[in-house]
Write a structure and sequence with these properties.
mainly beta; 44 strands; binds copper (II) ion; Glyoxal_oxidase_N; GO-like_E_set; Gal_Oxidase_central_sf
Length: about 650
Amino acid sequence: MARIKDVSCLLALLASVLATQELAGKFKIIGNSGVGAMLTVQATPDTVFIIDKTQKNELQVGGHSAWATAYDLRTNTIRAMDIGTNTFCAAGVILGNGTILHAGGDLASQYPMDGINGSIDGRRRLRLLDPCDDGNCEWTDRADLEMNSPRWYPTLEVLEDGSTIIMGGSVKGAYVNPEDNPTYEYFPSRGADRNMTFLARTYPLNLYPLVWLLPDSRLFVQADYKAINFDHVNNIEQDLPDIPYSFRVYPASAANWLTPLTAENNYTHTVNFCGGVSLTKDELIGSVDGPPALDVLQVAADTSCTSLNPLDAKPVWNDFEPLPEGRIMGSAIILPDLTILILNGAHYGTAGYGDLGSASWMTAGASYAESPTLTPIIYDPKRPKGKQWSSDGLSPSTIPRMYHSTAILLSDGSVFVSGSNPNSDVVPPEDTKYGTEYRVEKFYPPYFKAARRPRPTGLPDSLSYGGDPFTIELSSDDLFGDTKNIKTIMVTYIRPGSSTHAINFAQRAIKLQWSHKMLDNGGVRLSVQQLPSPTIFAPGPALLYVVVAGIPSEGKFVMAGSGKLGKQVVRPLVLPLVDVEPSASDPGSTKPVPNPSGNPSGNSTASSSDDKSANISGRVASPATLAVVSLLTLVSLTLL
Ligand SMILES: [Cu+2]
């Protein structure tokens, strides 16, 4: 009996492995968010926290409609969470101590709701959550925890001490900024609001300014067609060239990301924008609180992609391969193999929505966007020109993800895709073209083809700034039985960020250098560098992956820095010792063969296009087949 039970367990395991392999490149509907997923964030292994605006969701909590849930990834079930203030179009980050901060929002219940479903003015509110997987954490949403001033559509970016800057926003909601708040402040507070000229100069196209922390502690900031490097401590703005072709900030909502930071690219910070809306401010805006000045449903989304190194001596915008199809509201997700996935969004229009009937051209319900971009696309700069963007092997979603959609990378390497609600309240899908969407999907990138994922051991719980390397081990099976795969190993550390409005606040990735030593059992021990500095990778939790032959391990949430807010200890970075190449005749060799790059995979975005490791489909098939064969062998051995 025991043997039959073992066999059935193995067969069940094999079936589930094969079923997951089948999902590579596809979407799968996994559950229901309970509330509109306007913002999603994950900071513990098994739970995604979801925040909506105040609206009449059927799900109830505390005697009113819920507008926040915790989504359990183990069971695909939700728990309603009680937030009393209006969270409409706020922003979120994970602070350096692992606490989630959600800041800003809109006026109390300005939408057609009954008193029971009303909310409190959320424009100044700071909501905090110490995330958990056991169902025992709740949002702190208290009147004594507020910002200096009201902020609807503010931007958050985590700073090198794990605190956050809170930048800009509007005093109240509209299509674009109707009543500017051109100031910034911090959490924890550093005192009164400080004026920011750039925000005044980019009004009214300055909602959710696009911001990244730079290695010199300044911030790159982009809004309207303008960009600056911003010394927020001394309030000094350095003008950068205008961004070409189209505006990228909300409501153009171009896909945007920071190039993964690697030793090969010298941790050069490169900001990237793809898509958007190629209109001038005057063409787009009639009045700041009215609908767009023209029929935006006829305005095709831009295809251009452009990037900038803000700290270059003479920064210039560099075009790179355009998108094969124009896209607004695309969410750019840095995957564990450091390719860039873009999904969600639309072919025409802009972000936002209006009151039905407020413009004669409104034929997509309340939505200012039309024609969903259902097919995801992956950018890999190591592929040949003309193929760097590719949807090969990727299937479209069946669910339009229009305005108020979200996407975040999960620890298993899949992407949690949710939201879409270009409506002022809950509207069932049967009542309008783009209704309130509660269905949650996972998108499975191509590496899910693998039958087995690497299972590194010895992953640390935290990374320091500088200091000695840490040690991890991979087995022979983790190398898919082939020591040649050692040269493909990447250790990547990714902060998925907090997703809202096609922005993942604080998303960034770094590739860590390593050296290796063969073990007698055919495995390998890696010595891996710590983080270079808190301005390059700010404190707080992020996912650590080990990628072999393009197949990532499960990511582990690992704390960057001390786990506390405040100045971080930074020590000299000790790089891993000179690498030791494996030798076919002597796998345990310690022959000191220098490794010129310090990391043999060479997987930086600046790498040459002939690096075969970039070919995802090519590198997945072999190990996947091997692993299925070994599992089948195990099954047949058990049967004997
Ligand atoms: Cu919004």
